[in-house]
Each structure stands twice: as C-alpha cells, then as structure tokens.
Specification:
It is a single chain. The chain is built from seven helices and two strands, in the order αααββαααα. The protein is mainly alpha-helical and 153 residues long. The chain has two domains: 76 residues, Orthogonal Bundle (Arc Repressor Mutant, subunit A); 51 residues.
Length: 153
C-alpha cells in the first residue's frame, strides 16, 4: 500500500476541535463582544497560528463557524458558531452527555444516601438506568432536551 492509498491523518481531535472550542468560548463570552479576532483565538487554542488558520478554514467550510475575511479571503474575525458547533464544543447538551450526567447523579445519590431506604431506592434507579443502556438513555434524553415528552395513554 503506497502513501497515496492510505487515509489522511486525523485533524479533528488534535487541531480542529481545540480551535472550535476556543472559538466557542470566545464567541460565547462577553469579553470580545462575541466577535473574537484570529489573534485572540490563537492563544486561546494553544496551537500555532498556521494550525489555527488551517482549522478555521475547515470549520468555516463545514459551516461550524462564521468568519469575517479580508478582500483576499484571509480570516480575521469569528462572528458566530452554528448550533451543532455549540453541541460539539460542550456549550449545549447532547443526549449522550445528559444521559451520562443523569447516571452519574443517580449513582452518586445512591452511594451518599443518608438512610438504607433512600439508598435502596436510588440504587434501584441506578440499576434501572444501567439496564436501559446508553443508547436508549440517549434517545430518552433527546426527547427531553427537545421538549418532547410522550403523553400518558
């Protein structure tokens, strides 16, 4: 297999996602009026400027970030992020993250309940959550996050 036949190396986890998270923090924060300059994103991401520029181009092309460019097309400022970018950056919940938080809360309450009766009830709920599983739990959380709760029959 030649180098041309191999998949390209992953850039999401070590370049694009850190830049997206830095942009999300800065766009969401009041310090920069929601429109940080590229020069503010570079130190916030912890990456060198060429990597931030490459990630910014990819994120803009994918629709995750909105950018302001110069006449020649150079990115100078970030003016917004998409709803999906908010979820990927952790600003908004995902069904999976909310299910994990629920299971963690129930398990912690079971471990720290002050009485045997309360401990037993929380443990039963934790056991039921484990039995439901992460996939169905995420579906439930998706319905709750989205505001849809089925009516009782």
């Amino acid at each position: 297999m030649s180098a041309l036949d191999r998949p390209l190396p992953d850039t999401w986890f070590h370049r694009d996602l850190p830049v997206l998270r830095a942009v999300a923090r800065l766009v969401d924060g009041p310090e920069h009026g929601g429109n940080p300059y590229l020069g503010q994103v570079v130190p916030a991401s912890g990456l060198p400027k060429p990597d931030v520029l490459a990630a910014a181009r990819v994120l803009a092309a994918a629709g995750y970030v909105e950018v302001l460019t110069t006449y020649s097309g150079e990115i100078v400022r970030f003016t917004g992020i998409s709803p999906e970018a908010r979820r990927l950056a952790g600003l908004w919940p995902t069904p999976q993250s909310e299910w994990e938080r629920l299971v963690e809360q129930v398990t912690t309450r079971a471990a720290n309940a002050p009485t045997d009766v309360e401990r037993s009830r929380w443990r039963a709920l934790a056991d039921a959550a484990s039995a439901v599983g992460a996939d169905d739990g995420a579906l439930l959380m998706s319905a709750l996050i989205g505001g849809y709760v089925p009516r009782a029959r």
